[in-house]
Design a protein that fits this description.
18 strands, seven-stranded parallel beta sheet, 446 residues, Alpha/beta knot, elongated, binds adenine, alpha/beta
Length: 446
Amino acid sequence: MFTITIITVFPELFENWCKTSLIARAQEAGQLKINCIRLADHVAPKQRIDTPACGPGAGMVLKAPVVAAAIEEAFARYGSGEVVFFTPSGTLLTQRLCQEMATTYFSEPLSGAPGVGDHHIILVCGRYEGVDDRVIQRYSGRKISIGNYVLMGGDLPAQVFLEAILRYLPGVVGDSRSVFHDSFSGPLVDFPAYGQPNEWEGMAVPPVLLSGDHAKIEKWRNDAALTQTVKEHFSWLRTSEISSEMRRSVAEKIPAHYVVLMHDQVLIGRKEALPGTTSVTTIDVHDIARSSATYGIKKFYVVTPLHDQQELLRVFFQFWHTDQGRNYNENRYDAMSCVKVVSSLAEAEADIMSLSGQIPLKIATSARPVDGVQSLAFDDQAIAWQTARPVALMFGTGQGMTAELLQACDYVLTPIHGFTGYNHLSVRAAVAIILDRWLGYFEPSK
Ligand code: ADE
């Protein structure tokens, strides 16, 4: 038997919920028992369950002795168990955490009577400013948050938590295999679902799903799940454990990215920065080419209108774009193969257009916030990628891109900085950091 005690100010919030189909069925089957304890039942008549929070400022907390008395009653009724507190400052509830907790609770077969595999969890639903922290310490409670927003109390979070973990209780969801293939159980979200009628509002069910060819359907579903995850849940995917084979599949789904290094339309001069051009440096070209190769950049454009600078790079590439460079260092040669020197941004854009068939979305980068251009954070890939256009990441040299150039971009990435006031990264360091933040894979620990 899996026993849940809910400690709350408002037990009535759970009444109907406990009677809903799957939860009710699990209780009828004798696998699950849910009880509520009303906090007000643990104070003497006319006494309060809350008290002002210590220190200045408004706010009430649930009194430690009242909450503790309710927990003790839960222990007395159904045996001791894990105490879970719902609070916005808790650990974020994820599918991974639900699966971990469910595995602890349901790994042993549950009997209809007290015995092997039994578990008791006590869910404490906070209200007001929360529960006096000493209760959490006293019961070594686990703190859970369902999201980075604040609700009026922990009752809905407790229901969310139960809905998420009870799906793993054997017999609750008809086909138990489906629970382990749910969105966020692995690196991918679920594929989109379709049902009858086959045609609705001019939209047809994808024909492959009606083909009866199971292998083809499986392939379509995997592909659709991957596309949806890359486009809409990249932050999740890139922090999940994935095989090197899947990493290659992810790379194919990410829209084409290009790096554009501007030596033109940039600000120069230390005292009074004015629009001008800057000189190329071969160390930037080397390092940015290597970063570009690491993060799957299709081409790295060095933009300089100056003939002497173009000539310098022509000589440089006489080595790196030929067998001389390949024989010297093959990895470096590979990285250099994506570099192209162009005399203007328009030429780079035309080249991207000819390679990708679409005008690129220009995403500027800047050490300072830019007014008048929509800014993107480093987890806003979905905004850029929903357009399905190739992406040109724009980097300025000198004192950065001119205001006109910045205003001509579609978006600007938020500046990168540490917790210091110093913000003078070299462009090659900024490119590496930005590529990692925008396109990097953050392998989780094992
Ligand atoms: N109580 C209020 N807001 C909450 C949240 N986001 N998660 C858990 N408990 C809460």
